[in-house]
Every structure is written in structure tokens, then in C-alpha cells.
Write a structure and sequence with these properties.
Length: 323
């Protein structure tokens, strides 16, 4: 587990991440419950919706917090984000299938509906897709796509200190770990992979911007995400925004700006959950030309997602111990 963390984050980042976890997530579930409530309120203000992939063991420890999301003012769906938060691409096929079964049983026991999956660390392989198909999932959303927007939002005079070599090295480590496709050559659209519908998630996400590139200016985060949304809209494609809810306090302004821009674009942007996108693509996607790709003649689609890896800092301790 420690080797894996060092590979994905680097040793210094583990220490920084530990401090950030305690300050963003907290030792009880109160802070995350407030962030999640604020997230849902913000969505509701724009008549938007979201998909929150949640790790099954986190759901088992705090079901009430997650169930309350389904009764809030915005339409929210949960998806499975692994049984535990581990790299499932390293598991044997039989172990992958067993983890999916164990995760589904927790969701069923807590009476939380789900149709889709996102892999922890966005790490997947062909046998995981086979296991997902065998378990009846409607979609997976683990393949990342990187939009060419990291130069957006610099202040006049060029980049400040966050272009330092440590930040660049951290970014490179993340890119090597998650292996995003470049948006310049890869469509940001659902596609079939080993019999399951793959819905690509867009980079840069909040982790890349805040943890890796140390960008803290909300206006710059907004500029980067809006540039991604606008490029996606010009291509008539799907922008799957990833914002881990524990960083909502740092990103609320940027999320509001993205939703404001999405509501102002013409042709309209279809705001959908990943489940909506999967259902639409299953029914219409194979035949969809650019002009009727999305419902109601929308020009592009936007799905807001936020992986819930943990509700308290103790969940990270359990993760470290392999549970
Ligand atoms: Zn995660």
C-alpha cells in the first residue's frame, strides 16, 4: 500500500496530502457532510445534477450521510468507487470480481441504487471491464482525457511560482499513473470497451490543479475548467468534471462559474448524470450524428462528478491498513 501511494503521489506529497486530509475532511464526518450539502445546494441553484462515486466501505461506515444526498435539493446519483480504495488493476480477475460483488452487496444492503462504476485512482484494465460487464454495470467512467488548457488563466506577465519544478514533477507523476488520452486526438465521448460503455472523465481535475500544480486562485481554476468546457462544447462532446467534494470549499466559486457558463452557452448544454449519459448513449449513441448527438438538440453535455473516497480522516487510516 505504501509503495503504491509513493508511486502515485510521491513521498513528499503523502505528508502534504495527510495534512490536507485532516484540514479538508476532518476527524468526524461533520466537515464532509457540510461540504456535500454545500455542493448539492450549489448544483440546485443552477438546476444541475451530479454523480458521486463512493467507495463501498465508506458507504458502510456512514450510510446516513450518503443517503441524505439522495433526498437533497438537487438530483444526485451514487456510483460504485470500488469496495475499498485500492488499485483494482493490480488484482487478479477473480479478486476483481469478488470486490465488485462485495461492493454491490453493501450498496444493496443500504438500499442505495447504482448503475455505474469509477475505478479508484482511475486505474483499470481489460479484466476489470470484463468483471464490470459480468456484474451488470451500465457504465464505467475511469478513462481520463486531458484538455490542453493548463496555460489558461495566468495573470498578465506569465506564470507565477506554481510553475516550479516540484509541481511539474508531481503533475508528470500523476499523468504517468493515470495515463490520460490527449483531448487533441481522442474524442471526449462515451465509447464501448470490452462490452461496457466507457464514459471518459476530464482532466485537469481538482486534484491535478490544487495538489499537483498548487493552484489556489479560484479564478484561475474557473478559467481552466471553463476553457475545457468551451473546447468541449465547440466539438459537441461531453465534459465530465471531477471535483472531489472535500475540495468544494476551495472550488465552489469555480464550479459556480462553470455552471453559469454552461447555462449561458448556445446551443444549450445538456446537464446530466453519468447514468443519464449511459442510458442516452445505450439508446441513441451508436447512430448519433453530431447534430442529434444529445437530447433536445443540445450542443454538448456536462456531467459533474465527485469521487467520495472518505468521509473522515479515519477512512484514510483504514485505507492505509488495507481496509
Ligand atoms: Zn478515489
Amino acid at each position: 500500500m505504501l509503495t503504491h501511494l509513493i508511486r502515485s503521489k510521491g513521498p513528499l506529497n503523502i505528508v502534504r496530502r495527510g495534512r490536507a486530509i485532516v484540514s479538508c475532511v476532518g476527524l468526524t464526518a461533520d466537515r464532509m457532510a457540510r461540504s456535500l450539502a454545500a455542493f448539492v445546494d450549489l448544483l440546485a441553484a443552477y438546476d444541475a445534477c451530479a454523480t458521486f462515486p463512493v467507495t463501498a466501505l465508506t458507504l458502510r461506515r456512514r450510510p446516513a450521510v450518503l443517503r441524505s444526498l439522495l433526498q437533497g435539493p438537487a438530483r444526485v446519483e451514487l456510483a460504485v468507487h470500488g469496495y475499498r480504495h485500492s488499485d483494482m488493476s493490480l488484482l487478479a480477475p477473480s479478486a476483481q470480481a469478488a470486490e465488485l460483488t462485495a461492493a454491490a452487496s453493501i450498496f444493496h444492503r443500504e438500499r442505495i441504487p447504482f448503475t455505474g462504476f469509477r475505478a479508484p485512482y482511475l486505474r483499470w484494465n481489460a479484466s476489470l471491464l470484463t468483471a464490470l460487464r459480468g456484474a451488470g454495470y451500465a457504465y464505467d467512467s475511469s478513462q481520463s482525457i486531458l484538455w490542453p488548457v493548463l496555460d489558461r488563466g495566468w495573470p498578465v506577465g506569465g506564470p507565477p511560482g506554481d510553475s516550479d519544478s516540484h509541481a511539474r514533477a508531481d503533475l508528470q507523476r500523476l499523468l504517468e499513473f493515470c495515463r490520460p488520452h490527449p483531448a487533441e486526438t481522442f474524442p471526449s465521448l462515451p465509447f464501448w470497451a470490452d462490452g461496457i460503455l466507457e464514459i471518459p472523465v476530464s482532466f485537469p481535475d481538482d486534484e491535478m490543479l490544487i495538489e499537483r500544480l498548487r493552484i489556489s486562485d479560484p479564478a484561475r481554476i474557473a478559467a481552466i475548467w471553463i476553457a475545457s468546457l468551451e473546447q468541449c462544447h465547440a466539438r459537441g462532446e461531453l465534459f465530465v468534471l471531477q471535483l472531489h467534494p472535500e475540495r468544494l470549499p476551495l472550488c465552489a466559486e469555480a464550479l459556480a462559474a462553470v455552471l453559469e457558463r454552461a447555462r449561458g452557452l448556445r446551443p444549450a448544454v445538456w446537464l446530466a448524470t453519468l447514468g443519464d449519459v449511459a442510458a442516452w448513449w445505450q439508446a441513441h449513441g451508436n447512430a448519433a450524428a453530431r447534430t442529434d448527438r444529445w437530447p433536445n438538440a443540445a450542443g454538448s453535455a456536462l456531467a459533474v462528478t465527485g469521487d467520495i473516497d472518505a468521509l473522515t480522516a479515519w477512512d484514510y487510516v483504514w485505507r492505509f491498513l488495507g481496509a
